[in-house]
Amino acid sequence: MVICLCNGMSDGDVRTAAANGATRPKEVYDCCGGRAQCGGCTATILHILREMPGEKAQA
Ligand code: FES
User: Fold this and answer.
1) Is the pTM of this model over 0.85?
2) Does 57 map to a domain?
3) What range does the domain containing 18 cover?
4) How far is the CA of 45 from the centre of ligand 1 (A)?
5) Ligand 1: which atom is nearest the Cα of residue 35?
6) Closest Cα to atom 1, ligand 1: which residue?
7) Which of 51, 52, 38 is nearest to 6 (CA)?
């Protein structure tokens, strides 16, 4: 499911970024080769990061 329309990132992309060490939305954008634009996806990215086992998501 696409969660970031600006960067074309899916929930799977966010989980992959988290598995590779991303703990903040900015790090997720960086991992996916994107950048924060409208910010409309930030809450969803944080929600996914917080669901990841063993992850400590930071705003
Ligand atoms: S939807 Fe992700 S930055 Fe706009």
Assistant:
1) yes
2) no
3) 2-51
4) 10
5) 3
6) 4
7) 38
Give me the CATH number covering residue 47. Answer: 1.10.10
**Domain for residue 18, yes or no?**
yes
Residue carrying the six token digits 């944080």:
46
Q: What is the position in ligand 1's atom list of the atom closest to the CA of 5? A: 1
Higher pLDDT, 42 or 57: 42
Instruction: In whole angstroms, give the CA distance from residue 44 to residue 58.
Output: 13
Residues paired with 4 in a beta bridge: 9
Ranges of beta strands (E only) in the chain are 2-4, 9-10
DSSP 37-48: SS-TTHHHHHHH
**β-bridge mates for residue 2, sequence order:** 10
CA 5 to chain centre: 12
